[in-house]
Specification:
Number of helices: 1
Helix content: under 10%
Radius of gyration: 37 Å
Largest sheet: 4 strands, mixed
Distance between the termini: 131 Å
Strand order of the largest sheet: 2-9-8-5
Oligomer: single chain
């Protein structure tokens, strides 16, 4: 008697990942399509020798679409969209391994592995002069207004000049790096009247301003570690005549006449001259011809 026994392979084993939790640090300037986690680090095995089907999901809101797998049977994770540290600096992915295709009515065994992604900020932005205003919704570009100040003609100031809307100051918007910034005047000061402190940005005078014309300086803020990371700000310095005299009223007492029942905003007339509105005038000896 010959008995033939056929052993059927039941689907009674789940896929198994080598690791159930991985962590990867990804620089924010990583190129699109670059591999983030290699296939060999993510491939699952199955004792039943079934074909493995993979699916990648993101569990952190707002981080969908940045990472993907190469294919349903290839779990290699690659970068699908450009990263921006300002938008998010970490996310968590879950990779599913199934021994049947998604949607199959057959009994399906599933395994998961978690991939923790940390975005590393890199030096991508030039300095921003302060204060500045964001011009786009993702706050990646910040534009500053010109600085303004004034000096008296033929008078030497020994203190840093007071500017509006504030002192010359720039920051590194890649704030986790916070690279050192230095300042220099790169235009608008052919007579070398002014100088800027390389470290503080304080603007001072080297000599007298002898012309009433304004100076329009260009001040550059540069990162020490990379001179190609720089920004330029305009600084307008107005040269004015020094005020040596206080303004004064031309008369100590002004007398006027009004009528009962006049409407608001009606004229007040000079006392004794009802045809001439009362005028109050002041003068300043610094400006005799005004």
């Amino acid at each position: 008697l010959e008995i033939l026994v056929t052993i059927l392979n039941m689907n009674d084993n789940s896929p198994v990942f080598k690791q159930t939790n991985l962590t990867k640090v990804v620089p924010e300037d990583t190129k699109v399509n670059a591999t983030i986690v290699a296939r060999e680090d993510l491939s699952a095995s199955d004792a039943d020798l079934d074909i493995i089907f993979y699916e990648l999901t993101t569990i952190v809101a707002g981080t969908d679409g940045y990472f993907a797998i190469k294919g349903v049977n290839n779990p290699e994770i690659y970068l699908q969209k450009t990263l921006d540290y300002e938008k998010f600096n970490s996310t968590t992915l879950v990779l599913y391994a199934r021994d049947r295709p998604v949607g199959s009515t057959d009994t399906t065994n599933t395994a998961t592995t978690t991939i923790n992604i940390f975005i590393e900020q890199v030096d991508t932005k030039p300095p921003w002069f302060q204060p500045c205003t964001f011009i786009n919704t993702d706050k990646s570009i910040c534009i500053s207004s010109p600085y303004t100040g004034r000096v008296n003609i033929s008078e030497m100031s020994t203190e840093p000049l007071i500017l509006e809307p504030g002192p010359i100051y720039a920051i590194d918007p890649d704030y986790t790096l916070n690279e050192k910034i230095v300042y220099s005047i790169v235009g608008g000061d052919t007579d070398k009247v002014f100088s800027v402190d390389a470290d503080t940005g304080n603007l001072t005078m080297n000599k007298l301003a002898t012309s009433p014309a304004s100076y329009l300086l260009q001040v550059m803020a540069t990162q020490v570690n990379n001179i190609q990371k720089y920004s330029i700000a305009s600084v307008e310095i107005k040269v004015i005549n020094k005020s040596n005299h206080a303004p004064y009223f031309e008369s100590r007492i002004y007398n006027g006449t009004v009528f009962v029942g006049l409407a608001p905003r009606s004229f007040v007339f000079q006392a004794g001259n009802l045809s001439s509105p009362l005028r109050i005038t002041a003068a300043d000896d610094d400006f005799p011809n005004v």
